[in-house]
Amino acid sequence: MVDGQLTPEAILAATEEVLRRYGPAKATVVDVARALRVSHGSVYRHFPTKTALREAVTQRWLHRAHHGLAELAAAPQPAAQRLRRWLATLFEAKRRKALDDPELFATYLVLARESSGVVAAHIQDLLEQLTRIIADGVAAGEFAVGDPAVAAKAVFDATDRFHNPVHVGDWSDPGVDAAFEAVCTLVVAGLRPPRRDLDHASDRSVGS
Hints:
- By secondary structure, this protein is mostly helical.
- It folds into two domains: about 5-50, Homeodomain-like (Arc Repressor Mutant, subunit A), CATH 1.10.10; about 65-205, Tetracycline Repressor, domain 2.
- Helix content is about 75%, strand content about 0%.
- The chain has helices spanning about 10-20, 30-35, 40-45, 50-65, 70-75, 80-100, 100-115, 115-140, 150-160, 175-190, 195-205.
- The radius of gyration is 22 Å and the shape is elongated.
């Protein structure tokens, strides 16, 4: 590849292949440059350090793994339906990445541990999406929580088994889908207004 044609995306794609081939412990910027047939200085012009390159690869992977979640969070469906779809999509995306290509998934877990700032920013983005869904539910009367952001963090923590990579060993369990549905049902039920509030709302509606 000619240096003038080198793009950050091409470097990141090549880095992923190098990581797949050599693993995160042995992969170097020189290996990436060799795969692209450019000098390692050309790679450094786009990513000034090895750390910056690995963080960018991690960020790219997280973005691809969770593609579509933001759109789901902003969809026009009722909040409870959106919340279930969002959680299911997150779980399926993580599970597919882990089970379809376990070696590459393991590689990215190593990179994620190195890139704590990138991962923290990504988790914050996910929490903001959850907060939006729950806030919409509160505004529509579907949910009754004092602080949507606090509730979003609680939902994220309650469903940890279905998106935290430390639980990857559970994701191929035959009963994991039923467990996921049970947790989602409890989460949604916990966000809804108490039944007496719903009954009073119904009484007011009839009386009017």
